[in-house]
Amino acid sequence: MYCSQKSSVNSINNQVKLVAKEQGRCYLEHLFENKRLTSIWNITMIAAVGVDIAEIARMERVISRWGDHFLRKILTDREYAYCTLKSNMVFSVAARFAAKEAVYKSLPEHAQSTSRWHDIEVIHTDSGKPTVVCHGSLEALTAEMSWHLSLSHSNASAVAFVVLETKEEQQ
Q1: Which of 30, 48, 54, 115 could form a disulfide with 94 if both were Cys (CB 3.0 to 4.6 A apart)?
Q2: pLDDT at 40
Q3: Partners of 80 in beta bridges
Q4: How many other CB atoms are there within 10 angstroms of residue 64's CB atom?
């Protein structure tokens, strides 16, 4: 929910009114069946987006030329294990390469200069959803920000799109 200074929602037997806005939260007052309730909603904000595309043929050439040296340079141990188990690992490597580039593009400028390949890791949840995990110099950012990641590929390219969102302080 995005709150503005003068937001109100009216419906049958239900009225919601913004009564205060401070420290990234909206304090809403509900009037429901003549009872007054107060609730707190977090305000989230998209801080940045990043997108990158990696060509599969180019990734195949780089892996053929540099092999394990290249893979170990850009992939964390978990990513390396995941990609090398795939029958055609080039698609997974290209997707992770694009994801790391997209995350890098979404970083605040001060964080870009200190980040390294292994500071950004792409893992999958139990349901298969790709997720960004930050390490090293970027780990401190995860207290205040989170990334939403989408990956896709065709026979020609892999693409990654990330949305960097601010997190709210917890009470």
Answers
A1: 54
A2: 56
A3: none
A4: 10
Give Cα 60 distance to the centre of its chain.
27
Cβ-based neighbours of 88, under 8 Å, separated by 6 or more: none
Q: Could you give the CA distance from residue 19 to residue 70 in angstroms, rounded to a whole number?
A: 56
Cβ burial of 79 (10 Å; 0-12, 13-18, 19+) is buried
**Residue 97 · residue 158 · CB < 8 Å:** yes
Each residue's pLDDT tens digit in the chain (171 positions)? 344 433 344 443 445 555 555 555 566 665 555 666 655 556 678 999 999 999 999 999 999 999 999 999 999 999 999 999 999 999 999 999 999 999 999 999 989 999 999 999 999 999 999 999 999 999 998 888 899 999 999 999 999 999 999 876 544
